[in-house]
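tool_call: predict_structure(chain=1)
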Amino acid sequence: MTASQVRQGNSTTSVLGRRLGADLLKLRLAAGLTQPQASKALSASTAKIAKMEGGWVPVRDPDIRALCELYGVHDPGTVGGLLELARVDRERRKAKGWWNDYTIPGVMQEYVALESAATVIKTWQPAFIPGLLQTPEYVRALRADPAATVTKGPEPDEEFVAARLARRRRLTADPPLTLRVVLYEAALRNFPGGAATAEGQLDALVEAAAHPSVEFRIFPFSAGTHPGLVGSFNVISFAAPGAMDIVYVEAPFVEHWVEGGDAAALYGELFERITERSLSERESVSFLHKLRKEW
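tool_result:
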C-alpha cells in the first residue's frame, strides 16, 4: 500500500484498518459468502462491508462478533485478535499525539502515529542512521545535501529537526519502546556533512547502544551480501511477537506498507537472518569506537 492510496475522497484508510479489513475479507471468502450476504448480518449496506474490508472505516466490536458468527469463526484467539486489532485501530484514528503539532507529510504522519503505539520496532538500515537515533546535526546535513535526500517535504528545516527529535521520546517513555537496530557498515562510512557530523553521530550511537531498551548491531562488509541490501525496512509490532506486525519499506521514490500475514512474517525472518550474521552488541560498540578514532 503506497502513500497515495491512504485517502479516498474525504475518507482515510489506516494501516491497521487495512490489516483488519484484509483479515475480514479472507474469512468471508473462506466461508463462501458475498458482501451482500455479509451486509444482511449487520443490517447494513453492501457499501459498509466494502469500506470495512478496505480499511476505510473503524469497525465496531459487535460487527466483528456478528461477522465471525456468520463466517463460522469461533476460535477465541482468532476473534480476540480481530477485536484487539480493531481497538488499536480506533485508538490510532482518534489519537491526537505530539505529531499533530508539526508539519509531517503523508505516509510519515501515519508512521510516527504507529511508532508511538508500538512495543517493538526492528529496523534494518543499509544507507542511513535510523531516524530515532539521528542527531540534530545529522538531520540538518541530510536535509542540506540534495544528493542524500530523494525528496524534500514542505516543512521548514528546523521544524523537521524538532519533529525528528520528538520521536526519540519513545525510547524513554514508560514503558519504553524496544528498538532493535541492524546498521550496514556503509551507513557509518558515508556521513552527510562529513567529519563534522560523523563524530557527534557516532558518540550518540554509542550512547544509544547502552540504553537497556536498545539492541544495536552492525552488519560489516566482511559478512557478505543478502537481500536486505536493496532497501531499508522497519518491522513494527504492537503486542506479542508476530501478533500484529506491520512492515514499512522504503526505496527511492517509493514508500509502502506490508500489512501483516505471510509477507510481513518474511520480513521478520529476514531481519533475524541479518541479525545472526551481524556483529554482536559488544563487537558493534567496539566497532563504533574504532570508527570514531578514524574520523
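agent: DSSP finds eleven helices and eight strands in the chain. Proceeding to next step.
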